[in-house]
TrEMBL record:
Alphabetized GO MF terms: cytokine activity; growth factor activity; interleukin-12 receptor binding
GO cellular component, one term: extracellular space
Origin: domain of life: Eukaryota
Lineage: Eukaryota, Metazoa, Chordata, Craniata, Vertebrata
Main location group: secreted
Protein family (similarity comment): Belongs to the IL-6 superfamily.
Keywords: Cytokine, Disulfide bond, Glycoprotein, Growth factor, Secreted, Signal
Organism name: Lepisosteus oculatus
Protein name as it appears in the record: Interleukin-12 subunit alpha
Keyword Transferase annotated: no
GO biological process: immune response
Length: 201
């Protein structure tokens, strides 16, 4: 199942959830011994806001033509997911059976496993983006990733990747990576909304 299709399933569920539930949650849990912060009921709202800011920054980075010399990034249809691919399935919300979402998980939603996968994804993308020194992403995009990690998750970072040469192949790779990251951030925002909605009092 494609990320876009699962994102559609998230959207459909959230429309129904918004009609029947109210906000009451914090960004908390643990997975693999890693803790996810939850200092107050306002933390999850901050997580959501930071994820939306990060989405805007990724969209802006995709529009920086200087980073894509030799081609038009907007015309690249393919994206490059550099993660282990587990987050979408781990974070699929609980839904009624036979909803049409063919990738429906057979086990109950596990918030800790979901948040653990999100934190790993954020670190994976951060380390990947740090390797594109020519793109000057550290002062804006990577800073926003750090803010979301600091606000929501704690995880020992993986070693930073080596700097990639500024050539056509790597500029094209950056375009594809950012397109995949944008899709993942949309998913992350919807997951955080789901967690917030599911914590009914």
């Amino acid at each position: 199942m494609s990320l876009q299709k699962i994102d559609f399933c998230f959207s459909a569920w959230l429309v129904l959830a918004l009609l029947s539930t109210h906000f009451a949650a914090v960004c908390e849990g643990s997975a693999g011994g890693q803790q996810h912060r939850a200092s107050s009921p306002d933390v999850l709202g901050s997580c959501l806001e930071r994820s939306r800011t990060l989405l805007a920054n990724v969209t802006n980075a995709l529009g920086q033509k200087d980073n894509y010399e030799g081609f038009n990034c907007s015309q690249i249809l393919l994206s490059l997911d550099i993660t282990n691919g587990m987050t979408v399935k781990a974070c699929e919300p609980d839904t009624e059976e036979n909803t049409g979402c063919s990738g429906h998980r057979k086990t109950p939603f596990n918030k800790s496993a979901c948040l653990g996968n999100i934190s790993i994804d954020l670190w994976d993308y951060k380390n990947e983006l740090l390797s594109y020194k020519h793109a000057n992403l550290e002062g804006t995009l990577i800073k926003r990733v750090d803010e979301l990690l600091e606000d929501s998750f704690t995880l020992t970072p993986a070693p930073q990747t080596a700097t990639l040469e500024n050539n056509f192949e790597n500029r094209e790779r950056l375009c594809k990576v950012l397109k995949a990251f944008r899709v993942r951030i949309v998913t992350i925002s919807r997951v955080l909304s789901y967690i917030k909605l599911s914590r009914m009092s």
